[in-house]
Design goal:
The chain is of the alpha/beta class and about 350 residues long. It is globular and about 55 Å long. About 40% of the residues lie in helices and about 20% in strands. The protein folds into 2 domains: about 200 residues, 3-Layer(aba) Sandwich (Isopropylmalate Dehydrogenase), CATH 3.40.718; about 140 residues, 3-Layer(aba) Sandwich (Isopropylmalate Dehydrogenase), CATH 3.40.718. The strands form 2 sheets. It has a 10-stranded mixed beta sheet, with helices on both faces. A two-stranded antiparallel sheet has the order 6-7. Helix 1 packs across helix 9, helix 1 runs parallel beside helix 11 and helix 5 crosses helix 6. Strand 6 and strand 7 form a beta hairpin. Bound molecules: adenosine-5'-triphosphate (ATP). The site of adenosine-5'-triphosphate has 14 residues, from loops. The site of adenosine-5'-triphosphate (ATP) has 14 residues, from loops.
Amino acid sequence: MAANSVRIAVLPGDGIGTEVTDAALAVLEPLARRHGIGLSTETLPAGAFHYQATGEAFPESSFRAAEAADAILLGAMGWPGIRQADGTEIAPQLDLRFRLGLYAGVRPVRAIPGVPVALADPRAQGIDFVLVRESTEGLFHSRGAGLVTEDRAEETLRITRATTEKLSRFSFRLAERRAARLGRKGRVTLVDKANVFRAFAFMRAVFDGVAVEFPGVESGHHYVDAMALDLVRKPWAFDVLPTENMFGDILSDLAAGLVGGMGFSPSADIGDEHAVFQPAHGTAPDIAGQGIANPTAMLLSAAMMLDWLASRGAGQGFAEAGAELEAAVDAAFAAGLRTADIGGGDGTAAVMRAVAEQIGG
Ligand code: ATP
């Protein structure tokens, strides 16, 4: 990538995916100008409605363009009633994860000042942890290839040494960066089920092997069932939580519920060379087209994208722009912004305007 200038592939997708993408692009433009960074965007067709119109959910030309870009910003894809011929969902975002080897599903979970948290304990205002969901194997390994006969069905869970090592190193490095930013020691806790399954005992052993490379970061393990309990009992106690694909899928929705819901949950799917940034929510058909979707998760995903681009050598201006975007979201809610999903009256455009105002756009 050229220093200080990047190309972003934009896949708005379906439903509120397109609405929150429009809001993010409207904020990114003045932000880029203000920080003197070059952001060119190319909007690409893909998704359920594209499938309905053309018979193709994710044209190869869109995939190639996304693969060639410096980063990919994705809204959400899928629509009830629009299915592949075999009855499965239209999910090009899953294809992207597998085809681009995006093994680290990064789901930050942070209480935003002014946004109601699910727990009454005042310590819940300090919730700030990151789930790192392995996103290319685990129980999703057999996606679309499970065995189904008249009397039984089987899916296969796969854990590999190579991916577990990468996921673990990614998590420890993330903990180091967070420790530097937050001014305290980092802590990585592997979430597994090593007491029952050999695959998870293996995962734990590989994780422990990587942990010794990072003596400055605390490491530990937690069984997934105990973690479900503790994410409700004391979510403020955690820092970086790597886990298997299916466990991460479930826990990240639980975690989103702690800090305002899906509208506040950003995510990134990161590999060695590529990364996709998208809100954790879906296309929300129940509210699509009404202008009330909360674009905060998308804005925070865009902030993660800017920070990741900086870490890849795009320039310090990108890191500063990402930090400012996150701070602007916080400031807008602290100043009283209230979206419909938390019982307020502010729609998509109002959030966009309030955040743009905070960044002086
Ligand atoms: P998927 O399977 O693609 O995740 P889903 O239908 O299970 O889709 P969502 O589309 O995320 O899940 O919607 C779940 C609920 O959360 C819906 O009631 C939806 O309206 C609400 N929701 C999701 N995202 C937002 C948002 N950005 N703003 C407001 N409400 C949202």
